Amino acid sequence: MTPADSAQPLGETADAEPQGAREWQRLRSLLLGHERASLAALRASVGDHDSLARSVASVLPAAAAIRARQDDGLARVLAPVVEDSLQRSVRENPQPLVDALYPIMGPAIRRSIGETLAEMLQAFNGAVEQSFSVRALRWRLDAWRTGRSYADVVLLKTLVYRVEQVFLIHRETGLLLGHCLANGVVAQDPDMVSGMLTAIRDFIGDSFQVSAAEGVDAIRLGDLTILVRLGPRAILAAVVRGNAPSSLGVQLSETLESIHRSHAAALATFDGDMRGFADIDRSLQLCLRSQTRAPARSRPWRAYLVMGVVAALIGAAALARHRTQSDWNAVVAELRQEPGLTVIQADAAGDRHIEGLRDPLARDPAAVVGADRIRRLGINWNWKPYLSMEPALTQRRAQQLLAPPPGVNLRCDGDVLRATGVASAAWVTDARHRAGFIPGVRAYEDSGVTLDTRTIDAAAVYFEVGADTLSPARRAQLDALLPTLTALTAAAAELHRDYTLEIVGRADTPGTTQSNLRLSQSRAEAVRSYLVGHGLPAEQLRARGVGAVEAAAPNLHDFTDADRRVEFHVVSGAAGSALGAAP
Amino acid sequence: MQIKLCMVGAFAVGKSSLVQRYVQSVFSEKYHTTVGVKIDKKDVTVDGATTRMMLWDLAGEDAFSHLQTTYLRGCSGYILVADGTRAHTLDAALALNGRIERELGLLPFVLVLNKEDLAAGWEIPGERITALEAAGIRVLRSSAKNGAGVEAIFAHFARAPTAACIG
């Protein structure tokens, strides 16, 4: 046995094996000893899960890269797995995906919203511009005259250019590979047009010896241009109305190049089978550009203006409404505040209507509110009569009922009516009787009223020289004064006021002081006797002779008949002040 | 599936009449005299498969106009038309065919002898047709007037354009 034999792992025994087989094993050991060992190691590594995984992991990225270059087999296999993983991830915990996508989605959404708003404003501006200008009016007339829609006329007048159709034509056969049409454009059968276009290109090329590489790149007829771009396998033709910008030609070239790149195989082997070009229209759509005359980025001033005017109108309406509302509130408040008016209900819904009560002595509500406001606010009202106990109204009522003479003031403090000033005794007595009947007056207070004694104070009875008897004329004079004096007495008794009527006798200067004093005293006594005789209380009449001493005349020799007289002074109580003390 | 087919032949052999009643057309006859070609369209359905044929009807050749072979470029086949009542149109058609083959190589084609309805005035002897067929040319008879054989011409290309007879 060789060392190689002992190392071999198969471990067959010499006794169990026939001789031939043993020999064969030995031969294998001798020839393949080394390789068998490494084969066993390799087998072990493949069989072992971990080491197999390590081996595959080291080549996996490179293998994926190689396969991806070859075909899309890897993508096809992985697509459902990736979809499944994404769905599972979203279902189980969407947050990581949200975090990953947020930085992209946020700006994209904002931009999309921004662009949509800008477009809306632009469109609105366009609409406003079209609706409000003289030009728009002319176009409307055109539309009416030609029987076309207004939109058509606007488009036609404002169009700088518009790509109406795009053809992708197989260069060699002239067969149509793709075609798209702008909205609202009516076109002939594109297959036939495509062929004819190719034929015409050929015709021009043949007729004017243009090399095939150059070909025709534009056919122009009126305001219609057919821009043609030539590729190695296909031709792109765009039918443009208006003045196409040079950038459009560039775009056509780029589109054609990109189609050649993306559909290289389908173009190279084209035999009439259209299946390879199913998605071509999407590329062609991008060429359907147009531009109108309106400046693309002008600020929408007209829209701003219209919006501004609308906002101003709304503002003015709101302000007017607010003013009307506050006017109305003020009117109701003023009416509520006015004495003698009570607002029961103020209804501003629909017509402005007021239900209320009105004291007959209250001010006219129309005068309170003013004719102007009544008309402007459209107010109507219904007042029912009532009796107000408000002091202002009570005072007014007292004024009407008591008819105080000038110099007397009536004032209501709560339910107390106060009279002040100077009044005749007759009025004072009468007022006392009447005040108790005035609604709203609980108490009448007239301590502030002074009895009017001016008539008495001004009265005088004149005598002949040296006489102290009353002539018939003097008696008649006293008779005239009697009612006033009687009323005073009655009032004083009524008002519980203490008073004294001083009867002062005077004499002229001739004669001695003594005789004059005596004479004046007897003149006063004569008057007193007469008055007492006519019913005046004797205890309140005081006769006093002052002689000539108190004569007003500055010169003793300059006397008059007026000095021989009796005059009256009403003095309150013993103090001799004016009658007016409280009872 | 779509293919380009050309119709060629001498002047006034009835090419245009042949297609006029059977195809969809938007262009007027004047294109023949101006551009030298008029394009029509015909959809043919055979065994459920529709083939769209773009027919390039080339202006007839005569002393004044010369056939522009440029128009034949990229076609899947062509229809060689002759007037059965005028033998010289067959000669002209065969001459044209020779020129096409020289300039564009071998393409599938059929030879159509038109005006079959005018049997009384028929000028082309049967032996000549037999000889042409023996040479591998597919010969069809048609009448644009009564429509006989017209659909068969297009059906021929719809079924197997590449298997058409190569002259």
Characterization of this structure:
The complex is a heterodimer of chains A (about 575) and B (about 170). In chain A, a hairpin with a 2-residue loop joins strand 3 and strand 4 (about 225-230). Chain A has helices spanning about 5, 20-45, 50-70, 75-90, 95-130, 135-145, 150-160, 190-205, 245-260, 265-270, 280-285, 300-335, 365-370, 370-375, 390-400, 425-435, 455-460, 470-495, 515-535; strands at about 160-170, 175-180, 220, 225-230, 235-240, 290, 340-345, 350-360, 380-385, 410-415, 415-425, 445-450, 460, 500-505, 540-545, 565-570. Chain A has about 575 residues and is an alpha+beta fold. Mean pLDDT of chain A is about 80; it is low at about 1-15 and about 575-583. In chain A, helix 16 packs parallel to helix 18. The longest helix of chain A has about 40 residues, at about 95-130. Chain A is built from 19 helices and 16 strands. With about 170 residues, chain B is an alpha/beta fold. Chain B has a single domain, classed as P-loop containing nucleotide triphosphate hydrolases (Rossmann fold, 3-Layer(aba) Sandwich), CATH 3.40.50.300. Chain B has helices at about 15-20, 30-35, 85-105, 125-135, 150-160, and strands at about 1-10, 25, 35-45, 50-60, 75-85, 110-115, 140. The radius of gyration of chain B is 15 Å and the shape is globular. The model of chain B is unreliable at about 160-165 (pLDDT under 50). Classes of the chains: A alpha+beta (about 575), B alpha/beta (about 170).
